[in-house]
Amino acid sequence: MLKKVCLTMASVAAISALVIGTASAGNDKLVVKDNATPTPNSVFAVQDDGTINGAFLKWDPVLKRMGVNTVTPGSPMEVVAEWPTSLGSNTHSVFTSYGDSSRFTIRMANGTKALPTKTLNGAQLGNLNFRGYDGTNFNSSANAAIVANAEEDFTPTSMATRLVFFTTPVGQAFGAERLRITPSGNIGIGTSAPTSKLQVVGLPVYADNAAALLGGLTAGAFYRTSTGVLMVVY
Hints:
This protein is mainly beta. It folds into 3 domains: about 1-80, no CATH class; about 120-200, no CATH class; about 205-234, no CATH class. Helix content is about 5%, strand content about 35%. The strands form 4 sheets. It has an 8-stranded mixed beta sheet, with no helix packed on it. The protein has a 6-stranded mixed beta sheet with strand order 11-12-13-14-15-16, with no helix packed on it. Mean pLDDT is about 90; it is low at about 5-15.
């Protein structure tokens, strides 16, 4: 048997409807509808197994995935936005705090939720991943990324980390490491093992400023001579 309950506001105008059913398992048990006329539209429905189906909302209790503006979430939380035009004011997500800062925290442990174990050397603590669309699919891995890794097995008193930046060169589809910040604060460009506060490997080699300009460098660019002297184009 189905029962329809109208919800009202102070104006006594019905704003939505609840349809509660007792049908067989798997069918809708709770349906929330809007106040469209002549036929209300279903906003979302809850099934007996906990599944939530809606035009803009999906909860899969088996895979434990939530989708907003998608009915096929591919991760524990997937939020899809579609903008009619490209504007700087198009904001996908907003985190607002009062009295203190908003903190976006990424955490990682080995083991399981019930029995977590320590983070091990080399483990990826977090990955800010950027991917583009090739006309058919979104890329399967990062086109650009910022990745944090453990540099040792974690203990309560020592948790060394590194931060690595990736971009993808022209003519390729997968990212390559461009810059690394080590646990000691050394920065490496073109090397994954910098031995000083800044180490750059792969600078172009030119005899002098004129040769560097002829080679395509512009003012402010760095190059080195054949004897290893660091120079700046002027």
